[in-house]
Amino acid sequence: MNRRAAPESRPVALTVAGSDSGGGAGIQADLKTMEACGVFGTSAITSVTAQNTRGVAGTHLLPTGEIEAQLDAVLDDFDVGAVKTGMLGTAEVVETVTAYADRLPNLVVDPVMVAASGDRLLEPEAESAYEDLIGAATLVTPNADEAAVLTGIEPGTEDEMRAVGEQLRDLGATAALVKGGHVEFADDDRADEVVDVLVTDETVETVRHPRVETDATHGSGCTLSSAIAAHLARDEDLTTAAEAGVDLLARAVRYPLDVGEGPGSVHHTVEARDRAAREPTAERVTEVVERFVDRDVSSLVPEVGMNVVGATPYAERPDETAAVEGRITRTRSGVRPNRGVRFGASSHVARFLIACREFDAARRFAVNCRFGHDVAAALADLDGEVVTVDDDAPDSAGSIQRWLAETAFERADGSPVAVVDQGGVDREPMVKLLADDAAALAARTLAVCDTIDTA
User: Fold this and answer.
1) Cα gap 292→309, rounded to integer Å
2) Structural domains of the chain sorted by starting position, each given as residue range(s) with its CATH number in brackets
3) Hey, which residues does 336 pair with through a beta bridge?
4) Among 196, 219, 354, 412, which is most buried by a count of CB atoms within 10 Å?
5) What is the enclosing helix (H) or strand (E) of 369?
């Protein structure tokens, strides 16, 4: 007997852009990102490029008739909810796409002019042709270089970024997202952050993220505009869609893909992969807790209770870590978790683990244990570096746990397996064990417990 099909209905988005043979940018990046955002991606290819992570070796522009045929094929068959444009290449192609503007809902225009490698992707005479396309756009997403070409303003401050957005809006765009990745702020205090400014008819929104020290930004603009288009296709409002796109890109740049001989590529599917890892991460934490209960690790439970924390592979916040709700505490019959494992259940240990991941993103699991002379002796037998922090936290420390992690990694020769916090004002002495996987965390913890209990 044949099985019955179970079709799934999905929103549809369209990318009108060039092909990147290296897979990091262009329609390849667009379609990966759209799929990761839960949207079915379609395409109209404007050009074929021979490129990789090191640069563009060649470009072949498709005849406008072929581009029109692709647009007609998609628009005549699919209920397209949003469209994004990328590399258009020539004034003729820009004008061709503009002629279709009334059939392109939620149009996101990424005015691609130069590749991340520095190779030019737009003929100079085509720059002025963008004005009419921008006038039809729901959103235009220029970087600093593109903003200078389109408006004559080279943004170096938030006010200038806002001015760029207002000029683009005056051209007819519903809104403009002026990207700050290439903006060099004169204020040194801004050197460590990326600021993106969203200008609409009603509001000016500023989104900030810490700057990531990496050259692996190939495909960043494509990924951002495609993510925004995908969220618009899902009927999200413009501000929500833009902020979701910026958040996705920040994570995609933080965890780039090490491919090719060049700098690499942004991680287009990073959020989808992280979501997929949530349940397995919670399961690993549960398994560690069960091992602790079976073994009875009472001798390691501190006064404040113990918690086991597991981070998803691309976790950036405490709510992206799984932990025991209410912690693990001692009872007359051994240790017991107060409740089950859920995401966002830990504060202190989770913040510590997230801070450690800034130095070693492979560290995904942590547990807090009591500290004493017997524990110190047992830690010496661990296979890995143990770092002790006996300083009082400075008054300026925004987060004690972040300061503790930063101090420990600054003092370590590599990546420590245990950090000893000898305590301070209102701070109980504590040991935090770290590991890349749950099994290793459990093994380290139980090794310390065995040494203590048999001493």
Assistant:
1) 13
2) 12-269 (3.40.1190.20), 277-453 (3.40.225.10)
3) 329
4) 219
5) strand 365-370
Cα 245 from Cα 33, distance rounded (Å): 10
Give the span between the Cα atoms of 7 and 237, in whole angstroms.
27
* β-strands 308-311, 365-370 pairing: antiparallel
Closest to 95 (Cα-Cα) out of 129, 135, 51, 47: 129
What residue has token string 């519903």? 174
DSSP codes joined into one string, 5-24: P------EEEEEEEEETTSS
- At residue 340, φ and ψ (nearest 5 deg) are -85, -175
C-alpha distances out from residue 435 to 58, 200, 289, 308, 423, Å = 46, 46, 15, 11, 22
pLDDT at 197 over 80: yes
Q: Spell out the residues 6+ positions from residue 156 whose beta carbon is closer than 8 angstroms to its own.
A: 183, 184, 185, 186
State the alpha helices, DSSP H only, in 235-389: 238-254, 270-276, 278-295, 348-357, 373-379
Helices (H), 185-237: 220-233
Two tokens, residue 93: 């192609």
Task: Give tens-digit pLDDT for 292-338.
Answer: 999 999 999 999 999 999 999 999 999 999 999 999 999 999 999 99
Taking the C-alpha atoms of residue 126 and residue 113, their distance in angstroms, rounded to an integer, is 10
Q: What's the CA gap between 49 and 18, in Å, rounded?
A: 7
Contact between 57 and 50 (Cβ < 8 Å): yes
